[in-house]
Fold Glycine--tRNA ligase.
Amino acid sequence: NEDKFKKVISHAKEYGYIFQSSEIYDGLSAVYDYGQNGVELKNNIRNYWWKAMVQMHDNIVGLDAAIFMHPTTWKASGHVDAFNDPLIDNKDSKKRYRADVLIEDFAEKLNQKAQKEIEKAAKRFGDAFDEEQYKTTNPRVLGYLSKKDEILQRMARSLEKEDLADVKALIEELEIACPLSGSKNWTDVKQFNLMFGTKLGASVDSAMDLYLRPETAQGIFVNFLNVQKSGRMKIPFGIAQTGKAFRNEIVARQFIFRMREFEQMEMQFFVRPGEELKWYEEWKENRIKWHYSLGFDQKKYRFHDHEKLAHYANAAADIEFDFPFGFKELEGIHSRTDFDLKAHEKFSGKKLQFFDPELNESYVPYVIETSIGLDRMFLAIFSESLQEEILTDGSERTVLKIPAVLAPNKAAVLPLVKKDGLPELAKKIIDQLKFDFNVDYDEKDAIGRRYRRQDAAGTPFCITVDHESLTDGSVTIRHRDTMEQKRVKIDTLIDVIGKEVSV
Ligand code: ATP
């Protein structure tokens, strides 16, 4: 799986999907640029989400709020006080760690030890092996697994009570029992705010301290009444927004999974107080169906219901995806109560209420939020699409099976040879198709090599122009996934391709 992840990263670079930011200056950590294919895939994912959320719901509208917001926003939202990661430095290695991640790594090590024992036993017992039974009865496996649970629980308790001294003590105990960083020389644990600060205005005295927004949601909350009034929206209704968010993440590994500058696609759905849990269930269902609609194996997704809730939530779940490094959060669905709107009422002194004509009363609505990282969605799609196949003749091919609706180029037009008028006809075909789709052109190398290149770049269709095309007005269309080839008339191409690539 580590191999698979490395392949994903190098393939993304080689085919113009993702580059390290400022690479010629040795890069900027946890910041990435999207290349010529990446930007198309990213736009297509964003549109696919927008269509499903805004276009398909007559009670959801869009918004595009600014990245800069009044600084009081972040006091009201709780980000100034509570958007922290616990950090610890190692005095010997001079390395900085997130304390919770360090402890989770210890726990994972114990888990791996348990898994090794299980694998060994499975080999020994062969077909007769019952993994569930072994896990719950073998003392050594039980020991590792219960120790793992114990340290995770102690960490959760200490973090909740903000008992940072105990978090440090736990790390020190674990370092002795099971060395990970190879050192015992730790500093105290300190809370570190994840927001990026900046200044608005030029003069030193009057410049205002600002933050780059760490989430897009607050732009929706502060505009709740503007949208409700100008759009004459009735509850329940939603506001959707996509845009950049910024977090000074400390543990920034795992490629575009955790970035310092990333993009979110969020929707806040405003409902009557008391009806929020019904809508919460409804949105969980709706969102998982959206993921399933892309056609990947449904086993790759799972819900993780939160037991420990954030201060603003009365129910929360993640949709997790099986990334090359295991199941991790892809999207969050949160029942945020009236926490945000009430907080903005308090800090702004303005009422943020809805008059409900059916109930004949005014109230602060409750909110269900769906929040997904566009870049994480990109990584899920890209890593799941990248496949190595052994063909019937024994040869191998690398193919990027991006769902056709999301693929950067929908087709590539390939003249069989670079002469006899074939390139000219190919370009004519492109002129016909380009109003409807992105189409690539390639005339270099043997046709088989070109097919492989388009397979690896994720193009769902190759259209080959040959000498017969000049007389019979037909071309060969080859399907990326099945590699099936068919002869079709040039003027039917728009329909043949359109059927497969439209939402
Ligand atoms: P995590 O626990 O992974 O840090 P989170 O719970 O802080 O995520 P939310 O604040 O709920 O995440 O943000 C909603 C979504 O935004 C996440 O589900 C994820 O897809 C995306 N997201 C959050 N932080 C990042 C990041 N640093 N880089 C890329 N995407 C992110």
The chain has a mean pLDDT of 93. The chain has 17 helices and 23 strands. The longest strand covers residues 326-337.
